[in-house]
Design goal:
The protein is mainly beta and 104 residues long. The protein has one helix at 90-96; strands at 10-15, 19-22, 33-42, 45-48, 53-56, 62-65, 72-74, 78-87. A 4-stranded antiparallel β-sheet has the order 1-8-3-6, with no helix packed on it.
């Protein structure tokens, strides 16, 4: 490949799960991850304790941040929630012999 056709090279679909605080160690640190949620749920909260931030994580919410740099987690929700998480992994660029785009 000479050029990568899409900004992201990985997708995770996370249904109805609480996620403990973590960093995404396989993500590319200089790029943002994009999280999108859908469903019929309430009381969802995205926490970033190292930044002392909490966000309401309502259906249709989108967030962008470096999941490798910022520790984050989602509390348990009441209802059905699906999150799409788009992100980049250097290993895919290396395999496809495509350079990364650098800092966002």
């Amino acid at each position: 490949l000479q050029l990568w056709a899409f900004m992201f090279n990985m997708l995770s679909i996370i249904p109805n799960q609480q996620t403990p605080y973590h960093r995404d160690h396989l993500s590319t640190p200089e790029l943002f991850d994009i999280l999108t949620t859908v469903g019929n749920y309430s009381n969802a909260c995205m926490s970033m304790p190292s930044l002392q931030l909490e966000f309401m994580y309502d259906p249709g919410a989108m967030m962008g941040f470096s999941g490798r740099i910022v520790r984050h987690g989602v509390h348990e929700v009441a209802g059905n929630c699906v999150a799409w998480v788009w992100y980049m992994r250097d290993s895919v660029h290396i395999y496809a012999v495509v350079s990364s785009c650098g800092w966002a």
